[in-house]
Amino acid sequence: MGACSAVGRGADCRLHPIPWFGFPAKPTKPSIPPGLIMLKYLLVLVILRLGAVDARLLCGIEMITSNMMEIQIKLDCSSLLAQHQECCSNHGVCYVFKRPWQVCDQNYCDCVYKIAGKAGGLCQTYGESFCTLVKETGRNFYDFYGKR
């Protein structure tokens, strides 16, 4: 005779408050699939790894262009990232102190040519295009710098 028949015909033993009938007093929670557990661990590792990624390249106040520059440099010229960040920082400081934008832009180009010219190839091409971009668009953002 089974435990359920002892309680009565048609009774649901899983809800019975006495655990010795073969079922726990409280319904158990469904177990988490192993694949989902692995996915959680993978997500945590990815998040932790993002914190260890090299510093972001912030070049100017317009984020789309800054992100484009960062991607190109990190993919093809990663050894120049810190140096290019310094060129960008100096350019921003120049704008903040309201030196003539032409002087700031030329200083940026000189800095980029100095580091990218030594690297040659694709890095040099990127340096030339970044310089052109700054000279063509930098003056549009010049007035935003240094305002409070």
TrEMBL record:
Keyword list, A-Z: Membrane, Transmembrane, Transmembrane helix
UniProt cross-references to InterPro entries, sorted A to Z: PLA2-like (IPR053322)
Membrane-traversing stretches: 38-59
Name this protein carries in UniProt: DB domain-containing protein
Gene source species: Heligmosomoides polygyrus (Parasitic roundworm)
